[in-house]
Amino acid sequence: METIKNYLDAMFMKLPDTYEVKRAKKDLYAMMEDKYEELMKEGMAENEAVGTVITEFGNLDEIAADLGLEKTADGKYREPFEEESFGRAPRKEEYFSRGKDDDDEDVYYENKYLRAFMDVYWQTITCVYLIWSFITFDWHITWIIWPVAAVAGKIIKNIWGVEKR
Predict the structure, then answer these.
(1) Least buried of 6, 109, 115, 124, by fewest C-beta within 10 Å?
(2) pTM over 0.90
(3) Residue 76 backbone dihedrals phi, psi, to 5 degrees
(4) CB of 36 within 8 A of CB of 47?
């Protein structure tokens, strides 16, 4: 699997660092990982499975075309320039990709009850906060739930979370 990850890193190095490219890389890695595991279950040797996966998914020109990127003279890829590209406002995904935290998508919880709880962790915290605040009318105190919940969430993630690869 490390070979596939290294191959993908090298392949995507020529592409611009945009939200769409990061998303495509993440999706492609997931598909390659699934195909690799499927081939291994069928009894294929590890090196042969890696080679097959890379052969099936490894065309950078197709990926770049799907993302609307054009190839430059030096072999790298870039977004096509518009006539007024210097004065344009950032696109919606450029705004949202900067602050987006995909941290929770990279963690897996082996305990099914903990996994179910962490799926609704922030919704549960919000409900507890609103119920507590409306019942007690102690809005000046109940805000403390947010930093406590953030620290508790990080502790749970660091102790029981398994990083996806």
Answers:
(1) 6
(2) no
(3) -90, 170
(4) no
